[in-house]
Amino acid sequence: MPNIINISNRLPVTVGEKITKSSGGLVSALEGVAPEGGELKLKWIGWPGAAVDLPSERQWIEHLLQQDYGYFPVFLSAEQVEAHYTGFSNASLWPLLHYMPTNFRYEPAWWQEYERVNRLFRDAALFVAMENDLVWVHDYHLMLLPAMLKERMPSLKIGFFLHTPFPSYEVFRCHPNRDELIRGMMGADLLGFHTFGYMRHFRSAVLRLLGIESEMTRIRFEGHTATIGVYPIGINAPKFEEQLARREHLQKMATIAPEDRDKQLVLSVERMDYTKGILNRLDAIETFLESCKDRDSVKFLFVGVPSREDVKEYLKQFEDQTPGSFVEEKRTSLVWHYRKSDPEFGEYKARLLAGELGTLAANEPIVVRHGKKIVEVASVQNNKGAAVRSFVEVGNFDLVVVAGDDTTDESMFKLALANLISIKIGPGETAAKIRLPSPARFRRLLEMSLLPAKEPSPELAHAAQ
Q1: Alpha carbon distance 303, 435 (integer Å)
Q2: Contact 167/99 with Cβ under 8 angstroms?
Q3: Which value, in Å, is the radius of gyration of the alpha carbons in the chain?
Q4: Measuring CA to CA, which residue among 375, 364, 356 is closest to residue 282?
Q5: CA distance 8 to 219
Q6: Rounded to the nearest 5°, which phi and psi values hold at 36?
């Protein structure tokens, strides 16, 4: 029986002090596939999920993965991951595939690295594959790989499945490398899509970009015939049912608070990604509850899976979308400034950014602050209050005065120090002990306080009481 070689961007493992299997949509789908007579045996090629630079470490990981799992790692540097995965795949392809061209970003260097990484996967597959083996390539990270493999080993039977939508031609043509991507996919013997609509869009792109007519399920291209089809991906339903019947699950259900037992529980599990409509979903829940006669009879449980994108990518997207704004990388935080943007549009985008980042970081040790013409993201341990406390702990001060006009200053105002005087400048809710109406009034206070006098200034004396 020929080998079945599965190729995806990421191996279903986590490489740390030890190697452990990880879960994912592709893993869940393949768990339900089994030929007659037992479990499906796969050789799996992919990135192990960590940058491993030392040759000795690479050899050790390679040996363990092949011996224990039948996996063959493709090692990538941190720079390659940044350009191929974070850059080209997720900042360039991902938005267009999901009909969000306003989030599209592109750098020529990303394309060069995307080609290079696809060649690394090709070389890994050719090392493992034998004549007439079946190779199954997955998703938008490896769109060039089918053609690369077919060129080197024509006898391979190559399948390609796209786990995302394929957009209309009018959207896909926005990509600078649209022709090369389509040609890469056309190297497959079988191309699979989730829906007929996605397949139809692909045929349209082939016609308009390459000038090639196609049949309903076949495309003939340069002496090669690619079959196309619709194969909705699923999950291993029997395994889920088995888990629901386990004692651990039943015990967990028994611990549900008594007040929830008569309620209808609605569970949502979703990746925290801008394409998933998280905020729209929350608005829909709010609308439903407003119209619900007995809103206490329903309880919504939302589980968020970490996004493919980090906070820096979100801030960069909003910088591109908001003229006049920019991202400042501080030593302890990231700050998106919109002081020079259109006031109304800038404030609108700031509220959106703060809301999305707040949802993204709900279970992370970071804090999102929407301040005066800024949105700042910082570690919960890194704020102005922590900085002041660090100074106070190493010095011997009779009096500590902190002042500010922004919400980011509130961490200083909340410090529990007996010799602290906190001053809020301008309007807004505050934890400060006193308030001054303007920066000019604050400068006057400082000038009066620094003058030699027998008695302190009235403002400072009042604040110290």
Answers
A1: 42
A2: yes
A3: 29
A4: 356
A5: 24
A6: -60, 135
Q: Apex CA 390: angle with CA 386 and CA 394, to 5°?
A: 165
> 358-407 pLDDT, tens per residue?
766 655 556 788 888 999 887 665 678 878 887 887 778 888 999 998 87
Give me the phi and psi of 147, to 5 degrees please. -65, -40
Q: Which two tokens stand for residue 371?
A: 């301040």
DSSP annotation of 437 reads S
Q: What type of residue sits at position 282?
A: L
Residue 32: pLDDT band (50, 70, 90) is low
The reported pTM is 0.69
CA 70-71-77 angle, 5° bins: 160
Residue 309: the pLDDT is 58
CB 410 within 8 A of CB 424: no
Contacts of 310 (CB under 8 A, 6+ apart): 86
Determine how many CB atoms are found less than 10 A away from the CB of residue 194: 17
Domains in the chain, please, with CATH?
A: 4-230 (3.40.50.2000), 311-379 (3.30.70.1020), 384-464 (3.40.50.1000)
The span from the CA of 375 to the CA of 369, in Å, is: 6
Tokens of 67: 């011996």
What is the rounded distance in angstroms from the CA atom of residue 205 to the CA atom of residue 198?
A: 11
Token pair 């200053």 is found at 409
Residue 384, CA distances (Å) to 357, 404, 428 in order = 20, 10, 18
